[in-house]
From TrEMBL:
It catalyses: a lipid X + a UDP-2-N,3-O-bis[(3R)-3-hydroxyacyl]-alpha-D-glucosamine = a lipid A disaccharide + UDP + H(+). Keywords: Glycosyltransferase, Lipid A biosynthesis, Lipid biosynthesis, Lipid metabolism, Transferase. Its EC number is 2.4.1.182. Coiled coil: none annotated. One of its GO terms (cellular component) is membrane. The keyword Lipid metabolism applies. GO terms for biological process: lipid A biosynthetic process. GO terms for molecular function: lipid-A-disaccharide synthase activity; phospholipid binding. This is Lipid-A-disaccharide synthase. The keyword Transferase applies. Condensation of UDP-2,3-diacylglucosamine and 2,3-diacylglucosamine-1-phosphate to form lipid A disaccharide, a precursor of lipid A, a phosphorylated glycolipid that anchors the lipopolysaccharide to the outer membrane of the cell. It comes from the Bacteria. The lineage of its organism: Bacteria, Pseudomonadati, Pseudomonadota, Gammaproteobacteria, Moraxellales. It comes from Acinetobacter baumannii NIPH 80.
Amino acid sequence: MANRKLKIGIVVGEVSGDTLGVKLMRSFREQGIDAEFEGIGGPQMIAEGFNSYYPMETLSVMGIVEVLKDLKKLFAVRDGLINQWTQHPVDIFIGIDAPDFNLRLSKSIKEKNLPIKTVQYVSPSVWAWRQGRVHGIKQSIDLVLCLFPFEKVFYEQYEVPAAFVGHPLAKQLPLENPIQIAKQELGVDENQKHIALLPGSRKGEVERLLPMLLGAANILYTKYPDIQFLIPAINDARKQQIEQGVEQLAPQLKAKIHILENTDSESKIGRMVMNASDIIALASGTATLEAMLMHRPMVTFYKLHWLTYLIAKFLVKIPYYSLPNIIAGKKVIEELIQADATPENLAAEIEKLMNVETAQIQVMQHLTMHKQLISGNTEDPVQAILQCLNS
């Protein structure tokens, strides 16, 4: 294997997966491993030389009802990849995030007896809901790369090969993180209070969540007229969508809302905005972990299609939705879900965090969890993948 170039298939479905994917590609090359990468990648991976057969946005579908609408398209993409790798097999397939798609793709690889090892990088939340999936994972996945230590413990109970590789952000982001420096880097006034509003990176999320965010911003503005709001946009399409939303729903806030767009393929703007903000209001997802690792006070929220929510509520086996609360095993940040996600409730929770003591209590808990995530014994993901390939 060492005498020829490795062919590695990777599929990512969102910005966070693109970030993990490009880090993994660089890690292979930094360790002197000759490899080429193909499948479905995002802009960061493509800029690094990744050959993407389909746009990453093809897989950016959330919610059971929403996925059902795009099922035919998703099947076509899966079949296209299987056909490609039947004719020109890769050595190993690595699914990053997007578990519903990637686990089915891995299952198809095994069913067709393709000579391809399968890895899932970022464990699906089987410990939280639909735990029966672990049996399918055992049949179709040769290795699970876990970001959190409790995930490896879970898989060991079912004799699923797993490696705790740690979360790259926990190692990358510093324990000391002064907000003044972050404000300078973003180019905003250090003396003003900034509230970050993050409605998500997908079109459907922005449509569903931006009206609530703007409603909360308006409530806060009437009480605190000097407050400033920052909204990141991952690309020009999202920026235009947000600008139109502000124009239609909150034109009186145009001077107070600053929409910042990515200027390169690194998709850094969301992180920069969160880092420079005194308080963060964000859609539940991986961004809550980033905010936690930046030690910024936050409140999280989410709204799903009503049918998706009813099904999820029936299936979810844990009391929390956000990663900081799941990691802590208790409520550290406020979660406003479905009917509770209103402009009034969101504004009230943000206002609570304007109290310095309240915010500091939350921040200290973020710091404690950050230290825990970098203190454990982690494996190198590249070496774990190579061991899987050679086993």
